[in-house]
């Protein structure tokens, strides 16, 4: 019953790339872990969910725990989120739910699912593997709110997100999926600077873009935040780099100090990934022809793309993450995958002392000035029109279930997952008239 409700509601993970939740839950697990770490600096959406929807989330966690037949239900959050922890503990106590709270230290990336599995259970997910291989399923706290709503017959039609940075009124927004970023910025009072760049997501793993790109962006099921910032900051420098520039600089400037490896969170939990070796390999390789089935190149496939290596570790301002991403793309084109083995995995002894405080990320990225902004107010908005992409999740794009001229209500099915394909259905987020159907579906509100 619950799995059918999750499927019908079109729920995907709110905290990552949008993996269809029903597929993840079609299993049994020893641990059901809720990611409530709000991993990326500046984002406050999960804080708001914990503070204002604790009871709903706890009810959903208990229900999913039963579905998974999990022995341990754990909410993993940061120990200094005292207000949020108090709200969760109150809800747990009042409902008598068999849920514990695991208090993590304040480091980045505390919300990486494999790092979180290690923190909570002491187990290392195999390289190239997923948490269920060590008996764990992980979901984001905001996904729990969507599951609660699915239990009430409500599909995923709206999204909570943070808009902050160089805006007049930073706040939490609740908007229909498909709402333009322009509308979101207007709801925050507009930008405080004329020429800006933006981050769709968090400072470390979000997607960057220029002011010229901004108007083309819309809110999707996985949009966690919008950060407006000065155009010439460190992140924009990363955006400007092209692959030949990155490779040439790496070849001439890498000093093989190993800091990119020592601070890599996947290396720290025992994975055989060594970014400095990948960088060294560039000096003897004809790019891209020689990127092939080579054990060192294949280490790049283990990169979680957290960005610590380039934002914090490298003293030469090189970009190991971007190099790893490039290598991963070349290997994928050749159909080369990481081959698992049974070699023992040993976490590093210095891991506890090498964790990166989020404030260091903000300092390096030029975002420290926004760290203390109050982002607590919720603003609900109903857009006059929406442009809903048919692909906003891992898997195949949805197929249109409507056509131009159709009248739809909020929650009506407008995009259907292809049969036997990985994906999630998509629903109308406003009531109105369908005016365009292509790679996305445009709906104009009735009365406009």
Q: Estimate the mean pLDDT confidence.
A: 93
**Bulk shape:** globular
According to CATH, what is the topology of the largest domain? Rossmann fold
CATH class of the largest domain: Alpha Beta
Strand-pairing-aware structural class: alpha/beta
So, CATH architecture of the largest domain? Answer: 3-Layer(aba) Sandwich
* Topology, number of strands: 17
CATH-wise, what's the superfamily of the largest domain?
A: NADH-ubiquinone oxidoreductase 51kDa subunit
Strand order of the largest sheet: 8-7-9-5-6-10
Helix content: 25-40%
**Amino-to-carboxy terminus distance:** 39 Å
Q: Quote the beta fraction.
A: 15-25%
- As for the number of domains, it is 4
Number of continuous helical runs:
18
Question: How large, in whole angstroms, is the Cα Rg?
Answer: 22 Å
Poorly predicted ranges (pLDDT <50, ≥5 residues)? none
> The biggest beta sheet, please?
6 strands, mixed
Pfam family, one: Complex1_51K
Keywords: 4Fe-4S, Electron transport, Iron, Iron-sulfur, Metal-binding, Repeat, Transport
InterPro entries: 4Fe4S_Fe-S-bd (IPR017896), 4Fe4S_Fe_S_CS (IPR017900), Helical_ferredxn (IPR009051), Ion_transpt_RnfC/RsxC (IPR010208), Nuo51_FMN-bd (IPR011538), Nuo51_FMN-bd_sf (IPR037225), PduS (IPR017054), RnfC_N (IPR026902)
Protein name: SLBB domain-containing protein
């Amino acid at each position: 019953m619950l799995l059918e409700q999750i499927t019908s509601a079109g729920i995907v993970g709110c905290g990552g790339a949008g993996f269809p939740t029903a597929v993840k839950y079609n299993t049994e697990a020893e641990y059901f872990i809720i990611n409530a770490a709000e991993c990326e600096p500046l984002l406050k959406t999960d804080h708001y969910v914990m503070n204002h929807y604790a009871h709903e989330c706890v009810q959903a966690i208990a229900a999913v725990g039963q579905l998974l037949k999990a022995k341990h239900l754990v909410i993993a959050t940061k120990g200094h989120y005292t207000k949020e922890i108090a709200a969760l503990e109150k809800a747990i106590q009042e409902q008598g739910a068999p849920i514990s709270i695991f208090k993590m230290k304040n480091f980045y990336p505390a919300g990486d699912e494999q790092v979180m599995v290690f923190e909570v259970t002491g187990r290392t997910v195999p390289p190239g593997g997923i948490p269920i291989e060590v008996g764990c399923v992980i979901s984001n706290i905001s996904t729990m709110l969507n599951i609660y709503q699915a239990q009430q017959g409500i599909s995923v039609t709206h999204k909570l997100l943070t808009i902050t940075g160089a805006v007049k009124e930073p706040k939490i927004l609740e908007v229909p999926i498909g709402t333009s970023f322009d509308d979101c910025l207007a709801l925050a009072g507009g930008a405080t600077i004329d020429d800006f760049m933006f981050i769709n997501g968090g400072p470390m793993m979000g997607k960057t873009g220029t002011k010229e790109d901004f108007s083309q962006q819309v809110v999707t099921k996985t949009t966690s935040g919008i950060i407006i910032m000065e155009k010439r900051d460190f992140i924009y420098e990363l955006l400007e780099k092209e692959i030949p520039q990155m490779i040439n600089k790496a070849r001439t400037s890498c000093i093989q100090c190993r800091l990119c490896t020592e601070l890599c969170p996947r290396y720290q939990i025992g994975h055989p990934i060594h970014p400095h070796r990948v960088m060294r390999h560039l000096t003897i390789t004809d790019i891209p022809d020689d990127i092939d089935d080579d054990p060192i190149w294949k280490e790049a496939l283990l990169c979680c793309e957290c960005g610590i290596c380039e934002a914090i570790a490298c003293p030469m301002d090189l970009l190991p993450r971007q190099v790893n991403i490039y290598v991963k793309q070349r290997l994928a084109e050749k159909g080369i995958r990481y081959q698992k083995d049974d070699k023992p995995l040993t976490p590093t002894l210095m891991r506890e002392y090498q964790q990166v405080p989020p404030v260091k990320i903000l300092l390096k990225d030029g975002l420290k000035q926004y760290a203390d902004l109050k982002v607590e107010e919720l603003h609900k908005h109903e857009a006059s029109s929406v442009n809903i992409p048919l692909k906003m999740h891992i898997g195949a794009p949805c197929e249109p279930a409507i056509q131009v001229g159709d009248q739809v209500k909020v929650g009506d099915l407008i995009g259907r997952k292809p049969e036997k394909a990985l994906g999630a259905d998509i629903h109308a987020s406003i009531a109105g008239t369908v005016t365009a159907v292509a790679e996305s579906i445009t709906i104009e509100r009735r009365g406009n």
